[in-house]
Give the backbone structure.
Amino acid sequence: MAYKLLNLLALTSLAIVAFSSGVQPANALSNNHHARDTGLRGHGALAKRKRSVNEKRCKVRSAPADSSTVSSTYSSSADSIPAPATTSTWSDTDSSSSSSWTSTSSSAAAATSSASSSSSGSGKGCLAWPNGEQSYLGDYKTDKTSLIYTWGETVPSNAASLGFSFAPQLWGNTNMDAFAKTVVAGYAKYALFLNEPNESGQSNIDAADAAGLWKQYMEPLKALGYQVGSAATSSNPNGMTWTQDFFTACGGGCNPDFVAIHWYDISADGFIAYVQEWYTAFNLPIWVTEFAYQDFNGDDQGDLATIQSFMGEVTAWMDQQDYVQYYCWFGAMLDMQNVNPLNTLMNSDGSPSSLGEQFLYSG
């Protein structure tokens, strides 16, 4: 009996040591291995903004009680946003995933022509705006910025008078009814489709189901004078696959005028290659509706000078590409939610930061 008791105590001690040593369960390792092996990065912080039904950034956030000020808190915990998912931290610069699909849309040529008309670079800047009604929105309207979107169907009431065009978004299953009621003839010129349907923490919609949503909500808008954009997938490599599957499921019934994409990483060359890859794959104008200098897999997030250099290089390049219609830096906000706060375009009072001034005036 004593011998058995000693064996039991020994086994218990080993178990305690193993537990305290921080050994990870097998599924945690498997969830992270691809990011480690490939070095691909991207947008996993969109758990950075992982939205619940009521607090998603796809809808305009309520203005602060005192609209003349903005909270300078950067903590994502303030909005109860989940931690980033390691499986979505990607940025695909591997051209092997390019698609041979070519748009059959009758409006593709017209959209490309429209893109060419704005090749001077002035006006390509876009605001991805989660701040709701704010008087300081006017500080962000310059010759470089001409478009605003809010991850939803509603627009700040002063946007039109300031000279912004608005692009409402069918974010996902959570705002379909509101989108259909709001986005009618004459409401706007553009409309955006799903937000990162290839990510479980975002709109998370199967490509085949998305094809049905497009035919119901988006394709009819073209007859009302809208230019409509594809779903904006994250830069996870499966985003390209999802988009290819979407067009296959559509059977020729989905005809976007432009392709929307997201990108997060720290390589200007990687960013440029990624944009080129999507344009080559689908032969449609590009809207980069989220991008920032952010490495979700590493510790080197860059200082302000590095971020400014990156912004300058990639925006100057996009200004020279006829097929890039708009680009929206992340972010025009203070709560950057797991993205390096040095990427913010705002000071604590809502006025443009030094990076904001660069984006608004020089790129």
In short: The CA atoms of residues 62 and 132 lie 6 Å apart.
